User: Fold this.
Amino acid sequence: LQLMNDVFGNYVIQKFFEHGTPQQRSMLADKMQGHIYQLSLQMYGCRVVQKALEHVGTDQQVSMIRELEGHVMKCVKDQNGNHVIQKAIERVPEREVQFIIEAFNGQVYQLATHPYGCRVIQRIFEHCHDDQVKPLMEEMHKHTVQLIQDQYGNYVIQHILERGKPVDKSMVVGKVRG
Assistant:
């Protein structure tokens, strides 16, 4: 664990995840168990957690991210933790990140106008199933005009216009037109 938080040691651990045997990866991930939340909030530890999420099997991914349950909003608003949440959304099966999405219910405006939260919301819109995204998108549409004018929220709206479903694009355009 000490190497995972070290300015140089974290790179060695990342290389083990990239180039190690499946057994070595699994063993390293096991050593991280119980420390994922703390590692996620640290500058170097968060990089190790992200690399682990890229290279371990689904069972270990799920075990790792479950440690963030109850801490999702803290991670999203943290300069390091938000990267771990984004990586989890990108790499872990959709059904297993449902607890992350549920943490955002009633928080979409607050997240979309946050410098890190706006990135996480975009990852959800990119990687999660329509059924998972729908409640968040509905909540977001209630604040379209305010989000367009916000320094971070406008990125969420741009993302929808560039990559969203036609119905969501139409709703944004309709709100702009008045």
Observations:
- The first helix runs from residue 9 to 19.
- The two ends are 54 Å apart (CA to CA).
